[in-house]
Amino acid sequence: MAATKANKEQKYDRQLRLWGDHGQESLENAHVCLINATATGTEILKNLVLPGIGAFTIVDGHIVSGEDYQHTVFVKHLTIGFILQNRAQAATELLQELNSDVSGNFVEEVGNCVTMIPQKKLLLIEHTVIESHPDNALEDLRLDQPFSEFTNHIQSYDLENMEKKDHSHTPWIIVVAKYLDKWLSEHNCQAPKTYREKEAFKLFIREGILKNENGVPEDEENFEEAIKNVNTALNPTKIPSAVEDLFNSQQCSNITSQTPSFWVMLRAVKEFVHNEGNGNLPVRGTIPDMIADSQKFINLQNVYREKAMQDAAAVSKHVEYLLQSVGKSPENIPEKDIKLFCKNASFLRVVRCRSLAEEYNVDSVNKDEIASCMDNPDSEMVFYLMLRAVDRFYQQHSRYPGVYNYQVEEDISRLKLCVNSLLQEYSLNVNIKDDYIHEFCRYGAAEPHTVAAFLGGSAAQEAIKIISHQFVPFNNTFIYNAMSQTSATLHL
Amino acid sequence: MADAEEPMAVDGGHCDISCDWDGRWNHVRKFLERPGPFTHPDFEPSTEALSGFRLIHVVDMDTIDVSNLNRQFLFRPKDVGRPKAEVAADFINGRIPGCKVVPHFKKIQDFDESFYRQFHIIVCGLDSVIARRWMNGMLISLLSYEDGILDPSSIIPLIDGGTEGFKGNARVILPGMTACIDCTLELYPPQINFPMCTIASMPRLPEHCIEYARILQWPKEKPFGEISLDGDNPEHIQWVFDKAQERAAEFNITGVTYRLTQGVVKRIIPAVASTNAVIAAACATEVFKIATSAYIPLNNYLVFNDVDGLYTYTFEAERKENCSACSQVPQDLQFPPSAKLQEVLEYLTENASLQMKSPAITTTLEGKNKTLYLQSVKSIEERTRPNLCKTLKELGLSDGQELAVADVTTPQTVLFKLNFTT
């Protein structure tokens, strides 16, 4: 048992560094269903099997055809004649090979295949993300609204009377805080705001750099860091508007016994903001690395860490109260979840997608998005419209356009009729160039493997985002154009 | 693009008819037989181009590790320890009829022009900028010019892909025609290492403690004798981990874990199946386009990121007029005659457009070849070390002097022209 666990940690090491052990656990508890083992379908599944999805089931009633063998990595060709194998079974066997930790199943039934050429749709009603892992997050230093423990801490520093060694190794956060203090007392409690004021403030700090006996400034990297960071350090602490919107949402206001823990914790944070937080989110508790001696840095880091713990404990109390008020025990939301939530409070995201019905319905179709994209007639939106037209073609003719050479010419005009009827039905006043209609007939519903693989990779990762609730899924239609290697995300 | 009269011959032609079964090529047939509005202007539909890629050579110096299995799907647990090139070849040769993969368990630098010249397309999935620059330099060295005009048939397209976590990029390079790796060297920022004084006396992060064990304690204590630290040896990592923990405890630093230790020592970059699938697919699409001329290739750089939604950005990276690799223009070195050779060396390594690793500088003085400084051979390093403290004037160099610089980042020497400033 221990051997398998260690082996798994080794095998999954490179991905554990992205979504952690808890992300991996969610993945291993998930069961995914694939309808139709096409090239794209098997590629998506491959990228879920390799990272260790718990289980998969393929639903497909088709027998393997000569065409399916174009993605022969997942469907083995037996040279001595064909064995008429069900496609779901064939794909399951070969996907299963990729990872013995995953259990694969198949069902021989015909599923209704909608997609053909690169288009991905996301259909979630509401998906919450606590760990969005933003690429460029601003630090949470609170220099404009220092909490009391921080103020007490910097009091222990007397920059004017320090030995050079200590002076040069004082963390820049403390340097900025001290100089800000002095500035406020000399400027009627007005922090530097304009460009000129900030430049003056930087100069003020620069004047604090120690000078040698000849009056030449010493090399104090920590002061240089302080000056460099003034602009961001002086950013006012505030709650991101995205989070404010969440506070004002219906789910946050109406907590019931059915409410998912995300909203209960959010409400608790909101209560914190209005009470202990004095209008601010719980302190994040992390600081960036900076030039400083070990002790000064660790001490400062601990000030932030302890404050974060304190704030999380306060939020915890609110969570407890909320749960009790709807008849649930506090154990329902573990401490560690609350701590993780507080740490990520500035980065919370909720993705809400419209349903297919809303997208397709004449009254709720997103005409504005379609029309504005089509201002550029070569925008990726044209592919979305073409795919919709092709679906229409299939409904009318029970086949895709241009599958056989002799069909290509005639299908162009048939497809054009579908395009026009689509545009008319939705009252869309856009122009679709004939070139695109021609190109879709030329394709003949082909599914080149490299295109399937591109979609397979991207779709699989979106599935992993949804399963793990980490990183932010797209919303809601992704179109990939392999001809130009461009893509677009459409909100439909 | 290659001359239309000399089509890209991707079919090795060695396979018999039974490799093709009914419907095998249906998916690509439609692209290659039918004309269309978006195809390449030179494209002529035909049935002849209808084969997959028949002959592929794979060069890889690595063996398979357990941690590869989460994404490198040609490998299985039983293959751990075997050379990647050989296992990949076995897999494809056994699974895809008609396709022949020839493996080479070697470094790319083990081969010379005669090897690389035989290929129609080169695809790279390398894990270092140095290796990319080397391959880039190799293909540039194969270019032939007649009266200053580039002979298009000497161009071997290079398709390069790379990933890091949820980010990736794919690019198409036509050596001598489009931006090369060195033209866009600034896109690869130099690796940042922690300052020595932080590691030695002022650790603040768990990473500092790990680097202390790796860089300072290991060479001093030689825990396993004269062997250098091997990141793939769990015993070595355990030793570094234990020492790092001791140091962290001394300074009240939290966060040293085995996983972090391994990550720092091996400079591990996180990786998943999905991002690699996307970038590999993008690269393969380009190989298909170039080999068949069915569509216009990517022009010329694609960036992908799926941290937040799905994001791609495609742009045309521009050639640098004075690129040290592909511009054929001798590089300018501006220094006063009183500058020391050491300064020139520092410039070659630190300049963002050059980023050389251990340049060897030679020149011609009084008709004879003279090595000014060379690091890679101990005896020569010792002999030429005093030159570093000498000024360019003292070394006998004059204004306009040509210096030839060799480095691991390029298979050919780079020519520099010394320009004395006052």
TrEMBL record, chain A:
Gene Ontology cellular component list: cytoplasm
A GO BP entry: protein neddylation
Entry GO MF terms: NEDD8 activating enzyme activity
Coiled-coil regions, chain positions: none
Pfam families from the UniProt entry: ThiF
Pathway(s) of this molecule: Protein modification; protein neddylation
Keywords carried by this UniProt record: Ubl conjugation pathway
Family that this chain belongs to: Belongs to the ubiquitin-activating E1 family. ULA1 subfamily.
Described purpose of this protein according to its UniProt entry: Regulatory subunit of the dimeric UBA3-NAE1 E1 enzyme. E1 activates NEDD8 by first adenylating its C-terminal glycine residue with ATP, thereafter linking this residue to the side chain of the catalytic cysteine, yielding a NEDD8-UBA3 thioester and free AMP. E1 finally transfers NEDD8 to the catalytic cysteine of UBE2M.
Protein name per UniProt: NEDD8-activating enzyme E1 regulatory subunit
Species: Sphaeramia orbicularis
Gene label: nae1
From TrEMBL, chain B:
Pfam families documented for this protein: E2_bind (PF08825), ThiF (PF00899)
Pathway: Protein modification; protein neddylation
GO biological process, alphabetically ordered: protein neddylation
CDD domains from the UniProt entry: Uba3_RUB
Organism expressing this protein natively: Sphaeramia orbicularis (orbiculate cardinalfish)
Keywords for the protein's UniProt record, in alphabetical order: ATP-binding, Ligase, Nucleotide-binding, Ubl conjugation pathway
Organism taxonomic ancestry: Eukaryota, Metazoa, Chordata, Craniata, Vertebrata
InterPro entries: E2-binding, ThiF/MoeB/HesA, ThiF_NAD_FAD-bd, Ub_act_enz_dom_a_sf, Uba3_N, Ubiquitin-activating_enz, UBQ-activ_enz_E1_Cys_AS
Reactions listed under catalytic activity: ATP + [NEDD8 protein] + [E1 NEDD8-activating enzyme]-L-cysteine = AMP + diphosphate + [E1 NEDD8-activating enzyme]-S-[NEDD8 protein]-yl-L-cysteine
Protein name: NEDD8-activating enzyme E1 catalytic subunit
Function of the molecule: Catalytic subunit of the dimeric E1 enzyme, which activates NEDD8.
Annotated active site: C197 (glycyl thioester intermediate)
Similarity annotation: Belongs to the ubiquitin-activating E1 family. UBA3 subfamily.
Coiled-coil zones: none
Domain (E2 binding): residue spans on this chain: 333-421
One cellular component term from this protein's GO annotations in UniProt: cytoplasm
Broad enzyme group: ligase
